[in-house]
Design a protein that fits this description.
Structural class of chain B: mainly alpha
Helix content of chain B: over 70%
Number of helices of chain B: 14
CATH class of the largest domain in chain B: Mainly Alpha
Largest sheet of chain A: 5 strands, antiparallel
Oligomer: heterodimer
Number of domains of chain A: 2
Number of helices of chain A: 13
CATH superfamily of the largest domain in chain B: MetI-like
CATH topology of the largest domain in chain A: MetI-like fold
Strand content of chain B: under 5%
Largest sheet of chain B: none
CATH class of the largest domain in chain A: Mainly Alpha
Number of strands of chain B: 0
Number of strands of chain A: 8
Shape of chain B: flat
CATH topology of the largest domain in chain B: MetI-like fold
Order of helices and strands of chain B: HHHHHHHHHHHHHH
């Protein structure tokens, strides 16, 4: 016990290690989440090896060229050529029934514009530089498969790829998925999200900044200001789905329903404004992000050094001029922070949108070349809602699930990027206000 | 020779100032009034929202059967989430605010803040598709892991303080998680493997969940989602306690932990209580994670191994299709009003407690 006596400081210090364990566990959980997301997203785009399978069961002997998606000791999960429909060629093959399994080097994976994949054997060169109008003859097809040269998106000799080429193909597919307009692309959802968030910013920023300006510069401590402060502080703690309900009751049914009656005279059988749409969603999100904007703008206004205000007033500026010419320009980074935080909050929010207008599939884009270009009453697709839909109601098992993870990863990158930039901007603002007041 | 004042040519600047003065006055007055009017409008709108719910909400005799399982589900999800979020969030906050080196704190805090920003739908996706099926086979392993992790931390700390040379201890002071992280990472596969061992097969069979989408999954993922909320608020409260307090205690011979436990924690207690309340409120209202990973079965069961359906998830599922003005619609609005009121109550409580912390810090 001599060693104990020489180090008395270390008595009963073990609780500290429990706190350290909490940090370690949280960090491990975070790393695991990221890893799962990355690995699953890679699954969506990694070129799966194509196998030539032969197996025997009660119905006789079968032979199939198929992508091997997953395997263990008992079964192989494979996907053959999707001649008719995307997602119709999945198969479980028992290992015990296998007669032959090989990975021919000349196997080709043809991807069509609608997301179908066709597996063939042959040389990659013969599929290059085809006439877009030319009808393709696909050997091994059961029945008529109308495919033209223009439908062919990608031809890869999967089994002959080196490690780097696999990575390259995967990344190329990921890019194509993120910008794709076809049945399985994210373009519509991305555009819907961007338009929605921009509309929301246009609605919330002026309102939030003006209200913050009044609260911080004019209101002092009168009854209205105290009430508004309390309301905004409490608004921040309301669950987001309740905002969705507010939007549904007040905007969609209340305002939208009355608009319909007003514009068409009677209750239309098919509501135009009285159903979920872009404008109502943007308004709902604006309400949801209002506390974020007001609170961070107010914080920014508080950081403007009092010396600047006093100098402006001493030189004869009125209060309005002082605010407009001095305070707001100095607080500009705070406005930017508020905007970024609001956008980040809105971009990740899904629950309220389920009630006020995001849909699984919208036939038209919210922003297009037809008059009036921006379609405010239209339903739209959304990244976060797309994640939910792909995950729970996807029709094409493994592929939709993997794509849901890829969509989630994209959403996560957008939101994290926005938040990180907000943190950077805010830190710069703090440094500058310290310099200004020094 | 003097010139009479009236013969001065009227200066162009004076005239322009006089003309502008009226306009400036007008602008000054109307900016103030306009801003006030706008704020009044906003206040009215904010007041209208709950009133709108209130007027449209309707209850009938059947509300008890319809609502009770949902409320119970919400509370069950939030309680299990708190079981995960409290130890993790508070432990991490204590470590970051009081024990970590400034450099490490500057690294950890933004990581947790970014974690708070992760969209719930992403966490819900992972919970529903990956965690739930994976966990269904490994409940026993998880229990073992949760039991062994604190024991491992305590044992590692004890051994380190006994055996490590003083120089090493000085170097790793404030960086102990660097030692613990690899150990914890090693423990995870070990504990999970142990849970699958044939020796414990009968235990494992008893812990087989009724459905993969159950309270346990919700507790874990919702707990992870609310952990950063608790962390941020509690960390702020703990960091605001003056450093002299702990330094003085340590100078008098207290260990770092004793200084925290006896001095810092009691001072920061209101802030921590507020963090817990707000975390609970967040867990109560969280929608996407519960919607995606709970199975949405309205059961009245306490067991973490059975599914649940929460008020918020129920709203997201049923409100889009509810016919306006129907009994169902009124019931949904009533449940929303209930949730709204609960969250407001928790928030008001937290605000009150936080005001006390501010008072205490200003007084000390």
């Amino acid at each position: 016990m001599a060693s104990n006596a020489s180090r008395p400081v270390q008595r009963r210090d073990l609780g500290l290690w429990l706190a350290a364990a909490a940090v370690s566990t949280s960090l491990l959980a975070l790393a695991a989440l990221l890893w799962v997301l990355l690995a699953q997203s890679w699954q969506a785009f990694a070129p799966a090896p194509v196998a030539l399978l032969q197996w025997r069961d009660d119905a006789g002997e079968h032979s199939l060229l198929a992508s091997v998606l997953a395997q263990d000791e008992q079964v192989l999960i494979v996907r053959g050529s999707e001649w008719q429909r995307r997602g119709d060629a999945y198969r479980r093959v028992l290992r015990s029934s296998l007669v032959h399994l090989s990975f021919p080097a000349d196997a080709l994976n043809l991807r069509l514009a609608d997301g179908r994949e066709i597996l063939l054997r042959g040389s990659e060169q013969s599929w290059r530089g085809l006439d877009p109008q030319q009808r393709l003859v696909l050997p091994g097809a059961d029945g008529e498969v109308p495919v033209r040269g223009a439908d062919l998106v990608e031809v890869v000799a999967v089994n002959a790829l080196s490690g780097w080429q696999r990575l390259g193909t995967g990344l190329q597919r990921a890019l194509g998925f993120a910008g794709g307009t076809g049945g399985s692309g994210l373009f519509a959802a991305l555009l819907g999200t961007v338009v929605l968030v921009m509309l929301m910013s246009v609605l919330v920023m002026p309102l939030g900044v003006l209200v913050a300006l009044w609260l911080h510069e004019y209101a002092g401590n009168d009854q209205l200001a105290r009430g508004l402060r309390a309301a905004i502080a409490n608004l921040a703690s309301v669950p987001s789905v309740i905002y969705g309900l507010f939007g549904l009751v007040l905007f969609v049914h209340g305002i939208g329903g009355s608009l319909d009656v007003l514009l068409s005279g009677t209750t239309a059988p098919v509501p135009h404004w009285g159903r979920g749409g872009l404008l109502w969603s943007a308004l709902t999100l604006a309400l949801l992000t209002l506390p974020v904007v007001v609170i961070s703008v107010e914080e920014g206004l508080a950081r403007v050094p009092p010396g600047l205000r006093q100098a402006a007033l001493a030189l004869g500026a009125t209060r309005a001029e002082m605010l407009w010419r001095v305070v707001l320009p100095v607080a500009r980074p705070a406005l930017l922070t508020a905007l970024i935080l609001a956008v980040a909050r809105a971009a990740g929010e899904v629950a309220p949108l389920m009630l006020v207008g995001a849909v699984k599939y919208a036939p038209a884009l919210p922003l297009n070349g037809e008059f009036p270009y921006l379609h405010l009453s239209q339903q739209f697709m959304h990244l976060g809602h797309g994640v939910y839909d792909l995950a729970l109601t996807g029709s094409d098992g493994p592929r939709d699930l993997a794509q849901a993870h890829a969509t989630a990863l994209l959403l996560l990158l957008v939101v994290i990027g926005l938040n990180a930039s907000a943190i950077v901007v805010r830190n710069r603002l703090r440094e500058r206000s310290r310099e200004l007041s020094a | 020779m003097s010139v009479p004042a009236a013969s001065f040519p009227p200066h162009s600047l004076t005239a322009r100032f006089a003309a502008r003065a009226a306009r400036r006055q007008w602008r000054e007055r109307w900016l103030g009034r306009g801003l006030r009017g706008l704020s009044l409008l906003l206040a009215l709108l904010l007041l209208a929202l709950p009133l709108f719910l209130l007027f449209n909400a309707r209850i009938d005799d059947a509300w008890r059967e319809a609502l009770l399982p949902l409320l119970a589900g919400s509370f069950k999800a939030a309680l299990y989430a708190m079981l995960v979020a409290l130890p993790l969030g508070l432990g991490a906050a204590i470590w970051c605010a009081r024990f970590a080196t400034p450099g490490l704190r500057g690294l950890l805090k933004p990581v947790f803040e970014l974690f708070e920003a992760v969209p719930a739908v992403v966490l819900g996706l992972i919970a529903a598709l990956i965690l739930a099926p994976w966990l269904a086979q490994r409940v026993l392993g998880l229990v073992l892991l949760l039991a062994l992790l604190p024991l491992l931390a305590l044992a590692a700390g004890w051994l380190w303080q006994r055996l490590a040379p003083a120089g090493w201890q000085r170097f790793w002071r404030g960086r102990e998680i660097g030692l613990l992280l690899p150990l914890a990472a090693l423990l995870v596969p070990l504990a999970l493997g142990l849970g699958q061992a044939p020796l414990f097969a009968s235990f494992a069979a008893q812990l087989q969940p009724a459905s993969p989408w159950n309270g346990l999954v919700i507790g874990l993922m919702l707990g992870l989602a609310t952990m950063p909320v608790i962390f941020t608020l509690a960390e702020d409260a703990l960091f605001a306690v003056p450093a002299d307090l702990a330094t003085g205690a340590q100078a008098l011979g207290a260990t770092r932990w004793q200084a925290l436990w006896r001095l810092v924690l009691p001072v920061a207690a209101p802030g921590i209580a507020a963090a817990v309340l707000l975390g609970f409120s967040r867990a109560l209202g969280e929608t996407m994670i519960v919607l995606m990973a709970s199975g949405n079965t309205p059961l009245l069961q306490v067991s973490p191994l059975s599914g649940l359906r929460s008020v918020a998830a129920n709203l997201a599922l049923e409100a889009p299709d509810a016919v306006r003005g129907s009994v169902h619609y009124g019931q949904l609005l009533f449940s929303a009003l209930l949730l709204f009121g609960l969250c407001l109550l928790l928030n008001a409580l937290a605000e009150g407690v936080r005001a006390r912390l501010r008072q205490r810090l200003a007084g000390s």
